[in-house]
Every structure is written in C-alpha cells, then in structure tokens.
Amino acid sequence: MTSLHHFPTRTITAAIVAICASSNTVASGFAVPELSTAGVGTANALVANPEERGAIAYNPAAMAFHEESTINLGMLLLNPDLSVNIPGGGGDATTADWFVAPMAQIAIRIDDRWSAGLGVTAPFGLETRWALNTFPQLTGVVPGTNIPLSPQPTQSKLEIVDFTPTVTYKVAPEFAVSAGADIYWARAAQLDSSISQMEGDGSGLGFNLSAMYVKDRFSAGVNFHSASTLDLQGNFTALDRRLVMGGMSPSQTAELDLDLPWRLQLGVRYEFIPDKFAVEFDWTRTGWSEFEEIKIVGDLNGSILSDDQNQWTDANAYRVGATYNLTEATQLRFGYSFDETPQGDKYFSARVPDNDRHLFGFGVAHKLNDRVHVELGYMYVKLEDRDFRSTRPYDRATAPADINGTTALSGKYESDVQLIGLEISTSFDAF
Fold it and tell me: Quick check: 35 and 103 in contact, CB under 8 A?
C-alpha cells in the first residue's frame, strides 16, 4: 500500500491543472477575450477604435476621444460543445446549456484632458465535465481495493472576474495614454476527479497600460496587461480514507500560486468611407510561457506537495473587424480571428484539449435615442480537430503518475463554442 501515499499530492496537482485550463474557453489556453458586445461582433478587433463605447474595455485610452461619460452594462452567454473519440471509450463532455459572464464599463469624462474608468469583465474561465468511462486506460482499481487506479478527470470549473480601474490623459488632440490596475478575483475554482474533490478561491493583482493615436480617418492603439499571480486557497477531500498518508486527515487545505499570462494587443483602423465603413486589423500576443509550473503547498509544515510542470508557449492571435453604419441609428459589425494554441503534445491534457481556432463574429447596434444604445453580438468559435496520438505509453505501474501527454489520452478531440453578447449603454454629460 505504499504507492497509495502518492495519491493525495498527485490528485491535488491534477485538480489545479483542471482548474486552470479547458477547451470550453473561447481563445487559446483558458482565456476569454470577449470584453464587450462590440468585441463579440468584431471578433475582438477593437483596440484602435476611438468611436464605439464597447472599445473602451479593450483600450481605456479611447475614453479621451468620447465627448460624454458612458455606462455600459451587459452579459456574455457561452454554449460550449466538446467531445472525444477514443476506441472503447470517448463521448461528450457534459456541461450546462449556457454559462453567463458579466460585462460592465463606466467611463467618466472629468475635463478636456482627464478621464477615469472602471471595467468588470471575465477574461479567464472554464467549466467542463467528463464521464468516468471516457478514458479506457484510466479505468480499473488498485488490486485488492475499490480505489480507482488513476485520477480520472470529472468536473473542472474556474470563474475569474477582473476589476479594472483606469485613468486616461489626453496628451495632445490626436494622442492619449492610460494606466490602471487589474484586480483579479477567482470567485470559484473547483475540480472533481474519480478519487478526490478540490474547491477554493483567491485573488491577484496586475496592471495595464494603453495608448491611442487618432488622425483624420486613421487610428492606432496598443493595450498591455501585465502577468499576474493569483493566490488560491482551497479544501482538498480524498473520496477514500486509504488515499491519504498515515495520520493525515482525508480533508486538508492546499494553496498554490496560479500564474496568469501577460497580454499585448496592437491595432490599426482606417475609415474607408468616412462615418460609414471602417476596418481594423489587430495582432495579439499572449504570454502563456508564464504558465510554467503549479507548486502545491500543503497545510502540514508548509511542505511542497507537488511541483507540476506545464511549459506552455506564447501564442499569437490575428483579428480583423469591420463596422458599417447602415443608417444613422443602426450599425452592423463583422469580425474574424485566428488564435494559435499555446499547448504542445508533450503536455497535452484531456482537461485542455486545446488547438488552433477560428472565431467568426457578427453584431448589430442600434441607437434608441442620442443617449441610449442597445447592442447584440453573436460569435461562433470552431477549434480545429485535434487528433492526438502519443508515443509515450501510460504505465499503470507508476499510477497515479501524471497522465498528460501519454497514450491514455490518445484520441480525436472536437470542440466548438457559441457566444451571445447583450448590452445596453447610456451617456451623460461630463462634469
């Protein structure tokens, strides 16, 4: 029974990995870059847009080019679909029909040069569930017991909210800069596996910088969010007392530092038909190389329970968005994005069956009057099928060793996501 002593630390590690990534997210890794309904419609190509209220969430420096203060309130609805085809197993990941994430932005024009804003978005998150019989090589029990041989992933959930206070200064009529904070709150972090349960929450702090240049029909923008580390603390519960070391409680606390990536977005926009038709091209670089390891610290003498390696790589996204003013009151939006995956085969995970993806967006905005706007956006995200075939066998003799990148996960993974953005905004006079 000595080998069972390794179950708790390995299981906690698997739990945290599950909390951190899933193909049910909308961009590479576990990012959700849709920050406004305007972003949904333009496939997130908004960092150089000085006109749309929903662009402020992508580049706070845009506040300097709005004559009035504004409040945007909305929600993002996500409907993921994930399945894997494995001989003798496979199946669909079961999820709720729709997930809901907040989208809110307030921009206050203080005077001709100064503005201040506060955004509330959910830039990272996931939820996915696998049935116990999905991965045949991970089935079975430890000889002489009813304890599962390997920690099969079941439910993973992560909800991160970002509170973003910013201040903008208009340096010149054509140029503005902005600075602010990213206050992250992981309000829910959960993992269930075949042998354990893990849940917790935590917080972290980062910063953001942005700038925008506007000259006639041309504009350019840049926005940067720093990397951040979330301090997560949670409760780990072994589902069988024999999975824990002698003298240890089957319920214990565990904590870790979860590294979020930095994000850099550059964009240029041009109005081909003044006040009618404009096109923007953006390039985004996400620093997933920050997500290198997950070090678990237990409650017994502050000992390190596990140090799990991830070794993701930085990834690019290429986005193009267009706006067309059908009438003075109604605007149509279109967008396409290609997002690269940061995950290679060596660390492939069933909890992160990620791959390159294509995002197609469409939206409409309508002015009810001079102050109140309503917006609707729809996006379809298609991940390229990932036919994962490992050359590294999963060795039952070392169970529950890390299953990532092994033959236990070999199969064809398919996934897509539908998104709907709904938003209403109003403007009011500056101070």
Answer: yes
